[in-house]
Amino acid sequence: MLEIKHLKTVRALRDGGSLVEAAKQLHLTQSALSHQLKDVEERLGLSLFIRKTKPIRFTRAGEHILELAEKVIPQLEQTSRDIKKLAGGQAGRLHMAIECHSCFDWLMPAINSFRDQWPEVEIDLMASFHFEPLPALARGDLDLVVTADPTPMSGIYYQPLFRYQALLAIANQDNLTDKKFVEAKDLAQKTLIHYPVERKRLDIFTQFLDPNGIEPNATRHADLTLMIVQLVASGRGVACLPNWALQPYLNAGLISSRPLGEKGIWPTLYAAIREEQKDSSYMKDFLQQSLHSCNNNLTGIEPLK
Questions:
Q1: Ranges for the HTH lysR-type domain (predicted)?
Q2: DSSP-assigned letters across all residues of 62-110
Q3: Is the predicted pLDDT of residue 213 greater than 70, yes or no?
């Protein structure tokens, strides 16, 4: 008999396109995932996908199981939400601020899905350009903060979302394209373009330039990722942005990128909430939908357990 975990495994295999990516989405080792697939194939007596194909190609049996997963899993998730609502806690407030200013692309689908399921919850969203969001969270002015800087604070819980690589965006004609990775000293003669936030909230300073005692030649602010990319593409400077935020522009050939240092820099993104809200039904559901949105909409990230 098929189990829910089997349906989730097949769906993750479709979404990830490979055993490696499916294992990451399910927070399993590749060995554990292979064991689950072998288990379901033995129960059915049929293979679900064709081995050594990329992307994954399903057999007819696999396609039938995938169709079942697409019907059953959403129904189970909806039923779970409905039961939680019956248990209470339908109404509430979810005021959010984003320190990672490239996060709107994956966060908006999660918000839209959440709004459909929890219409009684009041939602507000803002970018934290000009105020400190974590103290506002602690005061109760906010309910959730997306941040890559989990500052220890009494009463604040940090839910890890995923790891991502911070890359240096450079113009295609920049001499840094001749290098496999960027060294801190390479930025001493560059104009660094970044969001209008404090230096202490920028990974390129705290994790790359400051430890090496390097200052860029100049800095420049831009509010939007697209604006930053356009400035970089026109040779007006360089910028540090998440790999997934840069990917569409890299695919289009508008700019180039290089890792920061030989090993690269891999920040972790968190959802910060107050401890008192950890057990709230709608907060749990929003965090779950956010994680699902991250896995489905972003490339190059590493999901966390």
A1: 2-59
A2: HHHHHHHHHHHHHHHHHHHHHHHHHTS---EEEEEEESSTTTHHHHHHH
A3: yes
